[in-house]
Amino acid sequence: MLRRVDIERFWSHVDVGEADACWLWKAGVDGGGYGVVSIGGATFQAHRIAYAISKGNTGLNVLHTCDVRRCCNPKHLYAGTQLDNVNDMCSRGRRRGPSRTSR
Q: Crossing angle of helices 46-55/4-12, nearest 10°?
């Protein structure tokens, strides 16, 4: 459960802009370029926390409609399964390595 102080600290690290723009994470990022935040001694991806604050924690993956890894705008985030995540990655041309069909 996120405390009010955690939520306030989280949003202080987000460049909140126009409603439809990407709201970029201003603090640390992981090796994949996703924003990261520490809460209660654990590290989380920032976009997952933004989603949990605004829409609740579903236990699913949190995907970006904008394809910007540091974006925390809840309007750009949606929950999906791992299959949804893989399909999104492939449809946007972000798959690395050999495709399954090339075997």
A: 130
> H/E element holding 55?
helix 46-55
Give the whole-angstrom CA distance, residue 90 versus residue 36: 24
Taking only the tens place, the pLDDT of each residue in 8-28 is 999 999 999 999 999 999 999
- CATH classification of the domain holding 66: 3.90.75.20
User: What are the residues whose beta carbons fall under 8 Å from the beta carbon of 39, sequence distance 6 or more?
Assistant: 2, 6, 10, 49
Residue range(s) defining the domain that contains residue 66: 4-95
Total domains present in the chain: 1
The model carries a pTM of 0.85
Type of residue found at 33: G
Q: Which residues contact 78 (CB under 8 A, 6 or more apart)?
A: 62, 63, 65
How far apart are the C-alpha atoms of 81 and 3, rounded to whole Å? 27
